[in-house]
Amino acid sequence: MPADEIIQKKKEYFFPNTMHFYSKPPHIIKGEGKYLFDDDGRRYLDFFAGVTVVNCGHCNPEITEKICEQVKRLQHASIIYLTQPMVLLAERLAKILPGDIRQMFFCNSGSEANDGALSLARMKTGKRGFLAFKGGLHGRTTLTLSVTGIDMWRIDPFLDDEPVWFAESFAAGEDSPQQKADDSLRSVENILNAHGNQIAACIVEPVQGNGGINIPPKDFFIRLKKLLEAHNVLLILDEIQTGFARTGYMFASEYFGIVPDIISFAKALGNGTPIAAFAARPDTAAALNKPSSSTLGGNPVSMTAGLAVLDFIEKNNLCEKSKELGAYFLEKLKAVEKNHAGLIENARGLGLMLGVSMKDPSHVDIVLEKMKDGGVIIGKNGINREVLVFQPPLIIDKDDIDAVCALLEETLASLR
Ligand SMILES: Cc1ncc(COP(=O)(O)O)c(C=O)c1O
Fold this sequence. Notes:
Blueprint: H1 3-13, E1 28-32, E2 35-38, E3 43-46, H2 49-52, H3 61-73, H4 84-96, E4 103-107, H5 110-125, E5 129-133, H6 142-146, E6 164-167, H7 177-195, E7 199-204, H8 220-229, E8 234-238, H9 252-256, E9 262-265, E10 276-280, H10 282-285, H11 300-315, H12 318-339, E11 344-350, E12 353-358, H13 362-373, E13 376-377, E14 379-381, E15 387-390, H14 398-415
Helix pairs in contact: 3-11, 4-11, 7-8, 12-14, 13-14
The chain binds pyridoxal-5'-phosphate (PLP).
């Protein structure tokens, strides 16, 4: 089917809110490792990994084979029956999750996982409200939208009915990161002093993805946790983008030296199969004791994919790879920043979660389109959609980074 016909059918049969990147989007028909292919046979180096999902590469043969075997054997039974992959994955995750977090609830999407995490916090503390950060994004359900601090995503007009307080953003931009973090934590403290007795949990991404790749200083979460503990407010870390080696660590909480009360994860654990979960220490998990079930949560196919993903990450040292390649990539992006100081505000990132903030947000779509025409797929994010985003599969190499940076240089030069 030609790309134009797909666009036409989307217009006819989808709600009008479903968007796509690019004025001339390719029709993607195949994925292989770090590459995507369109119906014209063009190959694209994918540096967005389907929004940070295929950390192990598209259609990774080692993972796909195990998924296919499972599909042929047992695709679905539901969590009300006993199946093996779900407990094996839970056991495996318990070994790598921070601290003593080892009980979990499997579901299908990041939104659903965060929604469950927020409900768990309410049940555990007996309080209804939440604290969240400006620039954070946590999902598409009513509750997760209500804690999302990016205006463009807050589409439901009644979200303000939920008792949610937003702390100042820790996104530093050109300002001093320490100053920004201090201001942000001061606003947390003020909110807690005034409303701590109504707040069940604080939900936050360790590195804000949609907000534009915003990384707080290393001691930020330790300081935040201390403030929260004084008011019996739980910390929910949303590791939906940052999980599974993306930042150079299995979870970014490790980089920040923090153990949250509840953690949520999704995306890369399935490498393309729908999977998500929220997890907590047994004493917190104990609050979720009324019957509850997710029809497809814990299904054998996604669970098998999760196990295969963890095998692949460990076998191929993807945490180390992400750390090393991320440092190399960031250095190169900093050089691009220097060469195009008139266009770029700054380059930043952790591991292979990197962003280049543009001074003029209108340049972002132009760069994306030109990079795509040059055979490279990148992402965009930011409060004003001003940030070019680089979150490739973790199986890339230095040559790929060199090629992307050369094309970026060329593209930016053409903007002048
Ligand atoms: C940090 C974060 N949390 C939650 C979500 C929602 O996940 P999902 O789209 O799987 O519902 C996203 C989606 O991009 C995300 O980036």
